[in-house]
UniProtKB/TrEMBL annotation, chain A:
Probably part of an ABC transporter complex. Probably responsible for the translocation of the substrate across the membrane. This is ABC transporter permease. Belongs to the binding-protein-dependent transport system permease family. It is a multi-pass membrane protein. The keyword Cytoplasm does not apply. One of its GO terms (biological process) is alkanesulfonate transmembrane transport. The lineage of its organism: Bacteria, Pseudomonadati, Pseudomonadota, Alphaproteobacteria, Hyphomicrobiales. Signal peptide: none annotated. Pfam families: BPD_transp_1.
TrEMBL record, chain B:
It comes from the Bacteria. This is ABC transporter ATP-binding protein. Keywords: ATP-binding, Nucleotide-binding, Transport. Involved in beta-(1-->2)glucan export. Transmembrane domains (TMD) form a pore in the inner membrane and the ATP-binding domain (NBD) is responsible for energy generation. PROSITE patterns: ABC_TRANSPORTER_1 (PS00211), ABC_TRANSPORTER_2 (PS50893). It comes from Rhodopseudomonas palustris.
Length: 299, 272
């Protein structure tokens, strides 16, 4: 799908009319949401959310016991591993108490790549969405590069950046870049044309429009892109850390595989899952703050 | 067409529309939305452009606003030709077009804050016009928290705060319920009297036009053009139940519908 094709004018109009149509009902929703959410419903939400993970744990436990496999550890075995990984004192091997250093290295690389992607993707997306000449020049190239899986870049990135963390950051950057860029372009192109007219008749024109209209109006889409980008960044860290770095959660998972330490592999997976979840919640909090003017975009 | 009353006749010409035409290139061939429109507006006048859909009234307004280019003729404000939107001509849209990420206060202050005006002055201006439309208590609300009538008040205050000479209004009360509409009509007349603005108001309601305007410009479709102008000399505040009002309303309605009846269906041009 090309950038050109991401938004059809009809869809554009449909979105615009839909938002107009839903506007009158919005105040009522605001009153019930956001503020004053009491403890009861919140507990209920938490309870509902943990039912499935607990069920999966139980299923895992039952299946391992039932099949008698030695390839997959019991949940309790992984819990012990996780404790040892975090605090040490149980196995006292190379991985005991090493969670902080692996975690910190991975977080640095994920957010390094992610912030670079946002730093390049958002301004570039704003300009591609707004300047037809730039779009005509860059759209075909970007559409050509986009279908190439990030993992396919692995050999080249190792040649460019050598064995080590730089290569991992580059892969994370590539993975986070496209969702951020494409969502920003989409956001800019779906800005209601009326808003540009309104800004124009109020005397706001040229480069001023970027800060006054384009950026805030595209912000909901930009946050969508950031959330997608952040999740891709966590997905790609494992691939990125296959490039021969000694530390990092991805490296730990790869080591676990070569050493046949499945408990270590699952520990790494769970930590990445939880961290990705927490980082997504942080982005949602940020998004709710910056989009407090838009009840539709509250997550 | 020439205004005989001394007070308005003496006022300078603020807007001059000469032989204005607009042809759209639609996918199924060119569509003529407006042909040969001439209009002279004096400072402080309240003009209503009245007509059915497809008569080019919105097109005419949007060309005056500078949002669209005419394919023929010219528009001049104080003798200077219009080429694009500008702060001298403020537009109030039917769908409000407020900036949803700005509060009431910030929306009203948008124009001044994008010119090199000290923040203190901007705040003072904003406060003044927020009070003028009665929204001081809602300063920190976002547009989605306002009713339609309140949104339109913000939109009007936003243009007033920007110190526009001409207030262009494109069916501004079309999306409002009848009660809110008549309240806003009254407020608008009050604002117009106190600020001495020039207003060009597009509507398809004969009653609204006769209620508000000094002069009703009747437009017809296929292609859109100005049919005639009707002076409304009724004293204000106008009484919609009075005999004079209704006689005038009937007269305008007759002029408006005399073309629709026989010749051809209302052309589907890009009026809205």
């Amino acid at each position: 799908m090309s950038l050109q094709g991401t938004v059809s004018p009809q869809l554009d109009r449909a979105v615009a009319t839909a938002s107009v149509a839903t506007a009158p009902t919005a105040p009522a929703r605001v009153a019930t949401r956001g503020r004053g959410r009491s403890l009861g419903p919140r507990l209920r939400a938490v309870a509902l959310a943990v039912v499935v993970p607990l069920g999966l744990l139980l299923l895992w436990d039952v299946l391992v016991r039932w099949t008698g496999t030695r390839l997959v550890p019991l949940p309790s075995g992984v819990a012990v591993m996780m404790w040892d990984f975090a605090f040490g004192g149980i196995y006292d091997d190379a991985y005991s108490g090493s969670l902080p250093i692996h975690f910190w290295k991975s977080v640095q690389r994920v957010y390094g790549g992610f912030f670079c992607a946002a730093l390049v993707g958002i301004p570039l997306g704003l300009m591609i969405g707004r300047i037809p000449l730039l779009r005509a020049m860059l759209d075909p190239t970007l559409s050509l590069l986009r279908p190439i899986p990030v993992t396919a870049w692995l050999p080249l990135s190792m040649i460019f950046f050598g064995l080590g963390p730089k290569s991992a950051v580059f892969l994370v950057f590539l993975g986070a870049f496209y969702p951020i860029l494409l969502n920003t372009v989409f956001g800019v192109k779906s800005v209601d044309a009326r808003l540009f007219e309104a800004a124009g008749m109020l005397g706001c024109r040229g480069p001023q429009l970027f800060r006054a209209v384009v950026l805030p109006a595209a912000l909901p889409s930009i946050f969508n892109g950031l959330r997608l980008g952040a999740s891709f960044a966590w997905i790609l860290i494992v691939v990125g850390e296959m490039t021969g770095v000694p530390e990092g959660l991805g490296a730990v998972i790869m080591d676990g595989r070569t050493l046949s330490r499945t408990d270590l592999v699952i520990t790494g997976m769970i930590i990445i899952g939880v961290t990705g979840f927490v980082s997504d919640r942080l982005l949602v909090l940020l998004s709710n703050y910056f989009l407090r003017w838009s009840p539709q975009h509250h997550a | 067409m020439l205004d005989p009353t001394a007070s308005r006749g003496a006022a300078p010409v603020i807007l001059e529309v000469r032989d204005l035409g607009k042809v759209y290139d639609a996918s199924n061939g060119p569509v003529e939305a407006l042909r040969g429109a001439n209009l002279t507006v004096r400072k402080g006048e309240f003009i209503c452009l009245l007509g059915a859909s497809g008569c080019g009234k919105s097109t005419l307004l949007r060309i005056v606003a500078g949002f669209e280019q005419a394919t023929q003729g010219s528009v001049a404000v104080y003798g200077c030709e219009v080429d694009g939107p500008g702060p001298d001509r403020g537009m109030v849209f039917q769908d409000y077009a407020l900036f949803p990420w700005l509060t009431v206060e910030q929306n009203i202050g948008f124009g001044p804050s994008h010119r090199r005006i000290a923040p203190k002055e901007v705040a003072k201006l904003t406060e003044k016009f927020m009070a003028m439309v009665g929204l001081t208590a809602f300063a920190d609300r976002y547009p989605h928290q306002l009713s339609g009538g309140m949104k339109q008040r913000v939109a009007i205050a936003r243009v007033l705060a920007n110190d526009a000479d001409i207030l262009l209004m494109d069916e501004p009360f079309g999306a409002l319920d009848a009660l809110t509409r008549s309240a806003l009509q009254e407020e608008l007349i009050e604002l117009w009297r106190t600020t001495k603005l020039t207003v060009i108001f597009v509507t398809h309601s004969v009653e609204e036009a006769v209620l508000l305007a000094d002069r009703v410009v009747v437009m017809t479709a296929g292609p859109g053009r100005i049919d005639c102008e009707v002076e409304v000399d009724l004293p204000r505040p106008r009484d919609v139940a009075s005999v004079e009002f209704n006689a005038l309303r009937r007269d305008v309605t007759r002029r408006l519908t005399s073309h629709i009846g026989g010749s051809r269906p209302v052309a589907a041009t890009a009026d809205s």
